Amino acid sequence: MTPWLRAAYDREAPRYDDRFEAQQAPKIHRLDGLLPSAPGLTLDLGAGTGLLHRLTGRAVLQIDGSVGMLAQARGPRVLADLERLPLPTGVAAAAFCVTALIGPASPLPALAEALRVLTPGGWLALSVSRHEDPEPVARTLADLGFHILQHLDMLDDVGWIARRP
Questions:
Q1: % of the chain residues with pLDDT over 70
Q2: Domains of the chain, residue spans
């Protein structure tokens, strides 16, 4: 996350849910409905204010690069950039990443980190805004060896359900 983007999220955090919950909720519910409840740790990568946990009740470790956003979240949370997760290799059975890959940076570092922390066969539920270019994300998932199980049209987003090899 760039310093500019981090500062913007920190500044907007108290108002984020009022502005974006209605937009994010359908994506969260759709991805949640498609991802099985896997035994073990589930991550929310780019958790923001913790909407996934609040809307679904799913037990997740919430990870975000914005102090302001995580201050709004409840439950277990970790301040970290998605490109450098402070977690051991192969620790998570599943991960969500809902509209969190934002900006001009390559999706490779964040998706490589997701691959690293997922157990073999671990699940990834991912969406990116159509305002971003989803093609590099799709290409990176394939290049990293993720097995794409579903490609999703989610109105403002494009999504994938994938498994780690």
A1: 99
A2: 3-163
